[in-house]
Amino acid sequence: MVSQTDLHFHLLPGLDDGPPSLAASLELAELAAADGTDRIVATPHVRGDFVTDVGELEELTRSVAAEIARAGLSVRVECGAELGHEMGGRLSQAELELVAQGPPGGRWLLVETPFSGLDEGVAEALDELRDRGFGIVLAHPERSAQIFGRCAPVLAEELARGTLLQINALSLLGVHGDLSRWNAIQLVAAGQAHVLGSDAHSFVRPPALTAGRDAAIEAGLPRSTADRLIGSAPLRLLERGLVPLPVPLSRRRHGLVAA
Ligand SMILES: [Fe+2]
């Protein structure tokens, strides 16, 4: 069995649209462990309608991790977030550091792809995060209906700037609808999916990395490549990080960085 790492998991209780209680968090962790996952980044929504004060996340993550260990589960849990792109301007450098992943010099942020898609405003927000020293992993781009439509140029620019794509396992399984599934398969087949994440929230949206991996194989991906999407690729991101590429002068719209 591949040792699985899940970079996108709504595990913390009572914060967002994830588990409402500690008991529900533990049940989700148990499901993940049974699926073969031994490392989880807890990624509550940090955006205008959910967590806007990240100060409490580290301590809450620590206490949930301790409860998971007490329950006898071999699942390591780390503090992170699924960041709304608009939050970059609202969070201090220290707050961004609190929810970033990876080692010094390779820190990166999991940024939610808006359902409305990628546009110039989102690109500017991502540029700002890069200018502040963070690489970008875009969460579930396949769930944006226009990702291969009007968003395609911005997506191509993001990929050129070193942004990596995290695809939801449940998208490959059709749980987010036919279009998301089709988009996910296209990204996987094109080699543009860097990692799968569960984006687990509940029993309805469970941790299902293995089933997502199997769906990727069914869609034509070689088994060794599909294994990497839930094994070595996410682990490497945590251990070695992601170095952001410099933003070209033509895109420095904010004057945030002296050119
Ligand atoms: Fe999520």
Structure description:
The chain has ten helices and nine strands. The chain is an alpha/beta fold and 259 residues long. The protein has one domain (4-242): Alpha-Beta Barrel (TIM Barrel), CATH 3.20.20.140. It has a six-stranded parallel beta sheet. Helix 9 (223-230) crosses helix 10. Bound molecules: fe (ii) ion (FE2). Fe (ii) ion (FE2) binds at residues 8, 10, 82, 139, 199.
Task: Output the CATH class name.
Answer: Alpha Beta
Q: Oligomeric state of the chains?
A: single chain
Q: At the fourth CATH level, what is the homologous superfamily?
A: Metal-dependent hydrolases
Low-pLDDT stretches: 254-259
- The structural domain count equals 1
CATH architecture: Alpha-Beta Barrel
Mean pLDDT: 93
DSSP E strands, number:
9
CATH topology: TIM Barrel
**Shape call:** globular
Helix content: 25-40%
Going by helix content, strand content and strand pairing, the class is alpha/beta
Binned strand content: 15-25%
Order of SSEs, N→C? Answer: EHEEHEEHEHEHEHHEHHH
Supply database-style keywords:
38% helix, 259 residues, six-stranded parallel sheet, TIM Barrel, disordered C terminus, three-stranded parallel sheet, globular, binds fe (ii) ion, alpha/beta, 15% strand
